[in-house]
Amino acid sequence: MSRSELSLSEHLADSIVEIIRTERLVPGDALASSRDLARRFDVTTPTVREALRRLEATGVVEFRHGSGTYVGPGSERRLLANPHLPRGSRESVLELVEARLVLEPAVAAAAARTRVPEAVSELEAASANALHPPRESLRQSVHFHVALAAASGNALLREAVEALLQVRAREQVEIRHRYNDRARDHAEHVEIYEAVRDGDAEAAERLTREHLGFIREAVLTADFPDVEDADPDGSATGTDR
Would you list the domain boundaries of the chain? Predict the structure, then answer.
C-alpha cells in the first residue's frame, strides 16, 4: 500500500469514528455497509475495508461473518490494550503485580470516598467471582478490581484498570495459578468491598495493598514454569485476582 493510500485509510477511519459519535451509535449497533461508506466518502471499497480493519484492531468495530460490521466495545474506550505484545515471562507477571500495587490501592481509596451506588452493588456481586474457577465464571461478569475502579466514579480509572488486566491477560492466568486459595481470595475481596461500602478510604487502600502484596509473595515464592505453558484461553474476565 502506498503512503497516499495509507494516509487516506487513516483519515477515513477517523471519519467512521466521527459517524459513530455524531449518530450516537453504541456497541452492537450496525454500521453502513462498505459499499455505502465508499459512496458516502467517494472512495474505493477496498480503502473502506482497510480503514475498518484498522478500527477492528482496536475494537472500535467488529465484523460478523454473514451479517456485517458493527460498533465494537472499543468505541467507548480511551485506553486500549496492545494485542500484539509478546508472550509473558516470570518477570512480566511480577511487573503486572507491581503496576497494580502502584495504581489500585489509591483507586480503592477513591472508590470508598465516592461510592457510586450502582457500582458498589456491582462490586458486591463481583466479590463472589473468586469462588469460581475460570471455566465456571461467566465471561461477561465484571472483574472485581474493574468493579472496584468503577465505584470511584472515574471512567478513566476504570478503563485504566481494565486495560491493564486485558493487556496482560496471560499473566492474569498465571496469577490465578499462583494465588489459588479461592476462599482466601474471596474473603479479601469481601473485606475490600465492605471498606468501600462503609466509606473507609484508609481501610480500602490498606486492604487492597495487602491483597496485592500477598499475590506478589505467592508469585515470588512459587515454583514457576515457563509462562508459555499457561492456559491460552484465559482472560482478564475469568481470572479475578
Answer: 3-76, 90-229
Residues in contact with 36: Cβ distance below 8 Å, sequence separation at least 6, in sequence order: none
109 C-beta neighbours (distance < 10 Å), count: 22
At 3-26, the pLDDT tens digits run 444 468 888 888 998 898 889 888
Which CATH code, of 1.10.101.10, 1.20.120.530, 1.20.1070.10, 3.40.50.720, is assigned to 90-229?
A: 1.20.120.530
Q: Mind giving me the DSSP string for 100-131?
A: HHHHHHHHHHHHHHH--HHHHHHHHHHGGGGG
| pLDDT, tens digit (0-9, with 9 covering 90-100), for 192-216 | 999 999 999 999 999 999 999 999 9
71: helix, coil or strand? strand
Q: Rounded distance, CA 64 to CA 49, Å?
A: 14
